[in-house]
Design goal:
The chain is an alpha/beta fold. The chain contains 8 helices and 5 strands. The chain is 52% helix and 10% strand. A 5-stranded parallel β-sheet has the order 2-1-3-4-5, with helices on both faces. Helix 3 links the parallel strand 3 and strand 4. The protein starts with 5 loop residues before the first strand and ends with a helix.
C-alpha cells in the first residue's frame, strides 16, 4: 500500500543553525513527504521520543555544532533501545568525510554536507524507502507546484524573477532616477546658456563645471 514517507527532522543540542534543517524539511515536504520539524535545542531523548510517537520512517538530524560524533551515536543507541533501529537515521551539517565513514560503521545512513543538493537528499530517502518496503510502496513524486500556489516563493518552476518584475517606468526608484537626470540636464542647459552670455574670462571655470556635471551624469546613466 502506498502512503506518504514520514520524516522527523531534528535539531539536537545547542546548535542554533536552523537554516539547513528548514531548507531540507521544506524540500522533503515539497517532494510529498510528511515532515515533522522538532525545532531547535532538542535532546536526543526528545528526538527519539518524538520519532516513536509520530511513527516516522526516517530520523534526520541537522548538526552544525561539531557535536555530531556524540549526538548521532546517542540517537542511534536510543533508537535501538526503543526498538526503532529499523528506521533510517540520516542527516547533515558540518561533518567531515572521515566522521561520516566512522558513523556509517555504527549504522548511521548517508550524511550530507554543505552544498548538498536537496534533490540528492530526496532521492536517497526515496531509494531507502523503496529498498525497505518495495518499489510498489513508493508514492509518486508530486507534480511541481505552480508559482501562484506558492504565494510568490521562487522555486524551480517559478518564472524568472525579471519576468515578474514591474515595468521599469512604474518603479519608484526608476522614476526618481529619471527626475534626477532631467534636473541635471536642465541645470547643464542653464549653465551652458550662462557660459555663452558671460565674458570669456568667466566662461572657463563654468565650462569645467559643466563637463564635471556631465561626466557625473554619464556615470549615473551607466549605473542606472
Ligand atoms: C549562517 C551561519 C550562521 C548563522 C546561523 C543562521 C541560522 N539561523 O541558521 C549565525 C550568524 C546565527 C551563526 C552563528 C554561529 N556560527 Co555559524 N555559520 C553560518 C554559515 C556561514 C552558513 C550556514 C548556513 O546557513 N548554510 C546554508 C544552509 C542551507 O546550508 P547547511 O546548513 O550547511 O545545510 C546543508 C547541508 O549541510 C545539509 N544539511 C544540513 N542540515 C541537514 C539536515 C538533514 C536532515 C539533511 C539530510 C541534510 C542537512 O543539507 C543542506 C543543504 O545543502 C556557516 C559556514 C558554512 N559555509 O556552512 C557557519 C558555521 C556553521 N558557523 C560556525 C560557528 C562556529 C558559529 C558560532 C559558534 C559563531 C560564534 N562564535 O558565535 C555561532 C553559533 C550560533 C549557535 N547558536 O549555534 C561554524 C561551525 C564550525 C564547526 N561546527 O566546526 C561554521 C562552519 C563557520 C566556520 N567555518 O567556522 N552562523
Amino acid at each position: 500500500m502506498q502512503r506518504k514517507i514520514r520524516v522527523l527532522v531534528g535539531k539536537p543540542g545547542l546548535d542554533g543553525h536552523d537554516r539547513g534543517a528548514k531548507v531540507v524539511a521544506a524540500a522533503l515536504r515539497d517532494a510529498g513527504m510528511e515532515v515533522i520539524y522538532t525545532g531547535l535545542h532538542q535532546t536526543a531523548e526528545q528526538i527519539v521520543e518524538a520519532a516513536v510517537q509520530e511513527d516516522v520512517d526516517v530520523v534526520a538530524l541537522s548538526i552544525l555544532s561539531g557535536a555530531h560524533m556524540t549526538l548521532f551515536p546517542e540517537v542511534r543507541e536510543l533508537m535501538r533501545e526503543r526498538g526503532i533501529d529499523d528506521k533510517l537515521l540520516t542527516g547533515g551539517g558540518i561533518i567531515p568525510p572521515e566522521d561520516m565513514n566512522t558513523l556509517a560503521q555504527d549504522g548511521v545512513g548517508r550524511l550530507f554536507g554543505p552544498g548538498s543538493s536537496t534533490r540528492d537528499i530526496i532521492d536517497y530517502v526515496r531509494e531507502w524507502y523503496a529498498a525497505k518496503h518495495g518499489a510498489d510502496a513508493l508514492p509518486p513524486l508530486p507534480a511541481p507546484r505552480a508559482a501562484s500556489e506558492l504565494g510568490g516563493v521562487a522555486t524551480a518552476v517559478a518564472p524568472p524573477r525579471r519576468a515578474a518584475a514591474k515595468p521599469v517606468a512604474s518603479r519608484p526608484r526608476a522614476r526618481a532616477q529619471a527626475r534626477t537626470k532631467a534636473a541635471v540636464a536642465k541645470r547643464a542647459a542653464r549653465t551652458n546658456g550662462a557660459a555663452k552670455r558671460a565674458p570669456a574670462r568667466a566662461a572657463k571655470p563654468r565650462a569645467r563645471a559643466t563637463s564635471r556635471t556631465s561626466s557625473k551624469s554619464r556615470r549615473g546613466t551607466r549605473r542606472g
